[in-house]
């Protein structure tokens, strides 16, 4: 998603003056709150739909199947299209909003897009907490989805463009870390409000999204625009220089500014970035903008993120124990993401992808095997096997949080040249939301039909995506964004597209 610190063509790391300043740290902390809201919305839905008072009020058929029908399969108790619509409506709204967010982010800047997202979050959380019928409930989720579309479009861009190239990975992973914090916060709140007398605890869960949304909206009013955005949509070189001096902590920023101006001049020659991105020379970026968010969703993480309490009830845990188990997995995911933040710019992206893929695959195979052998349709796992499944799920979450969780946002954010950046980021967000919606809408049906095989299904995808990264994704660690095209020219597969197109264009001139 963003801009950076350029270097001479022969260099592999940034060669600009500057350091990490408190100003850039605080700015990125405010922007990263968008990740907390996104994670909160992911985590809160799985908890509230496991609360009996919530189900009684909005989904009585599901409540009846859960509490009164004994012969139904463990895997089918929560199978309801209306119930999944509550979860997935957020993501289809986010998908549509992301296409409006792209021109806003490109034309008016990253900050206005963040503000729009924060306002939509505020209104959506108010509607959700005050809901008296299913229509208000889903409308609130739709507005939260609008906030997701704008925030996911602009926040990762903002973080990457503000960060020094040497630390870009760590700054960008702060977004995923905040997603994890949001999921954990939601799980803790769900566990805390579940037993409120009167059964209205779910209202607190839905309404509390307003807290981080308020912080994001108010904080964004004081955020500086990125130097890239100022040059791109305002051509204000002097103000961009002042911003660079402020965020880099030095007055010597001319070399970086010159590179940003060059990149902006090139991007302004592109009037239709969506047409530009389908050109042959951008084939690597187009493929990655589609493949990476797709693979991120078919890791199976949404089985945990959306429906962790339901999944734990499926294996025989009670409602309260299921919510506490979701807290445990949320804590593990947040801790592993923090570790990823510390090591990503030292270890590199490809190594983390591979290591995380192996962990996820092995744990999924064991989980599927235990559930197939020990649970059955109407059975209950013993306490020992239930604990073992919980441990394996935590291992799986740790593997995801070290790899596809943060890197699924980071890598797309750093590989797009400025002239196609807004369009490519929009595609990345849209693809991610499309498949998030599909999995959210179909998972309970898949669980009912695949049963324990659902883990083998996602495990196969983990093998495919790990091979994809190993063969087709070059290492991007410490490479300035505006020099990123070099990795495609040197790659054994992608060079045929990039170099052939460049030779063609030279022949045309």
From TrEMBL:
Membrane topology recorded in Swiss-Prot or TrEMBL: Multi-pass membrane protein
Gene3D superfamilies in alphabetical order: MFS general substrate transporter like domains
Species this chain originates from: Anisodus acutangulus
Domain Major facilitator superfamily (MFS) profile: 27-477
Subcellular location: Membrane
Protein family (similarity comment): Belongs to the major facilitator superfamily. Sugar transporter (TC 2.A.1.1) family. Belongs to the major facilitator superfamily. Phosphate:H(+) symporter (TC 2.A.1.9) family.
Transmembrane segments: 20-40, 82-101, 113-132, 138-159, 171-192, 204-223, 286-310, 322-344, 351-373, 385-411, 423-447, 453-473
Keywords per UniProt: Membrane, Sugar transport, Symport, Transmembrane, Transmembrane helix, Transport
Gene Ontology terms: cellular component: membrane
MF-aspect GO terms: monosaccharide transmembrane transporter activity; symporter activity
Entry keyword annotation includes Mitochondrion: no
Name the record gives this protein: Major facilitator superfamily (MFS) profile domain-containing protein
